[in-house]
Amino acid sequence: MMYLLPRWISPERFEPPHGCMLRLAERNGLPGMLELRLLTGLSISKIMDGRDLDKLAALLHCDPTVLDANAIIRRNNARAIVGGHTMRPSADFTPLSVRRACPSCVKEAPYHRAWWDWSFVSTCPWHECLLVDECTCGGKLSWQDGSPFKCRECDGGDIRISLNAPVDARLTAPDRWAIDRYIGQERQIVELIDDAPLGHAAELIKRVGVLHVHGYQPTYPKMSDPATVMEVRARGYELLAAGGIQDVLQRAFDGYLLSAPGPYRPLKHLYGWFYSWFINTGGVRLYPRMAAAISRHSKERIQVTRRAFGGLLPPEDNSGERNLTLSEASQLAKVRTQTMRLLLSFEGLIRPEKLKGAPVSVGRDVAERIARDIAEAFSLTSLETYLGLRRIAMIKLVRSGMLPYWVGGAARYRYLFRKRQIIDWLNDLLGDAPVANVAPPATVALADVPQAFKIDTVLLFEAVKRRDISIVAMIEVEPRLRNAFVRVDDVARYKATRVRETPALSRSV
Are the CB atoms for 129 and 164 separated by under 8 Å? Predict the structure, then answer.
């Protein structure tokens, strides 16, 4: 049950809903989120995922859209929306156990700011200081606290009296760019990242900095020191803002030449770990201008086909009827790359030597057709409903080769069926039976025959296909086994004949 609290607060500009809960707890004298949850039923973790915002709005006596403006609306495990900006839930937000704030900001206006939750923001650009994550008592700030100013473990703590840890303005520059973009304030134009989603743009800033500081490396260098991370972010932002990406790529390329001399220079190896990360993260889809920069640099140094550059071509060069990469075809069909590779192999469109990891080119028309087929395809469960047959009967039809399937996994009963193939199969099986408004007397639906007469399903359908048992009426135009009717006498006669010929077949399946 949710109780209305005697005192409430009004959301401030750029204050997230979970920040409102801190002030709500403090206003009502509650020590933390646990006590607030016991009274209101509101969970801080749910609010931080964008759930139950309407209930919180009722407690605050405000319109839910006010809370939506700075809420973290989680779309899935890979995407969240904050104030209209796309973030990555697993990478761009601090966990529930961590809460950070700028002491000077809280002193000026006592509420939580949305960007203090972003893992890629570690400073306050306005006060040129580090964000703090500790109370003045020495305890850690967390989202179980009951005040914006202190942790839940002490009575006299107050981060507003904390001493700011100053940082150079150069280190705050990437944070200022991200925050200014979020709040809609005029900011420095950084061409390579201005069109990328905010969370991905922040990640590219760091990756470019790492590539420049460490040079060519086959694997991504691990960094655990926060000061080092701040330095590489600042360096990456400086290079991107100054248009120095070609120098960064050249530095990595020079390192590659020293580590792997020889004539063979595959594109995926030129920049070490950076190229694989770039393509696997989203490539041209997320960073079209960065993709164009990599394309320009690499084309001047190696000879490679247009197909190899497919993941780097800007949208205007990717139009038309060119072939798609396996990743692009998978995105079009909304399936995993392994699934697309399997579908192509079933149709003989991948040569046996094209093992996993080898590039695969997919015709656009093929990818679009597969995408349509997947959208309409039946699973074993949905086809069971569509045909009106029991699961075991359908599996027998599949294994006998009578029921056509598209993708098969007999050991785990995982099948996909193309809708058009199923309709063609039904039309061929049922023939041109007359359409009736009601079922004729002394008839039975074909879907009910196996159970009603204890006849093997495969033998029954073979008899219908040979017209030993005729479909005498269809009560709807659409071909369905429940809509097709056969005479009871025909079925009984056929069963008696088959049982005399093969007594073991009297069992039904």
Answer: yes
